[in-house]
Known about the structure:
six-stranded mixed β-sheet; alpha+beta; globular
Amino acid sequence: xxxxxxxxxxxxxxxxxxxxxxxxxxxxxxxxxxxxxxxxxxxxxxxxxxxxxxxxxxxxxxxxxxxxxxxxxxxxxxxxxxxxxxxxxxxxxxxxxxxxxxxxxxxxxxxxxxxxxxxxxxxxxxxxxxxxxxxxxxxxxxxxxxxxxxxxxxxxxxxxxxxxxxxxxxxxxxxxxxx
Length: 179
């Protein structure tokens, strides 16, 4: 919540985020946490395969999502439409890939972001019989540091697109033969 305070998922609250990221602990999700000196320094979350991922995590955690959905229905009803849109849209991807959905680390110069990214790529590679590439999205505007980080890590721009409400985004991709 501290690193992504202006993002949609953060706006849904800490209860939603706990349920959402806990769902990544079940297949086909990946959730890695980086600790250093006994303190959490960052995390990375994503999928081994983007096909139907959101439907699978909702199905695997139906009661938790149902209960938080009722809460959101009264507190932020428009947000449920956006969540539903994302679930439906995720099934219509024309490219199949493993997807990095969130990466966050405490600001420092210790390389936590690189460690988390490499850990995620390694986890995908260990369970990737189809040799799916890894894809991720990030903001297009005012995001030079992240764009440079992904390019330096071997990712290339697959497309520039507009997300929900016209937010301009990059989709980066990296093929496993580059790892």
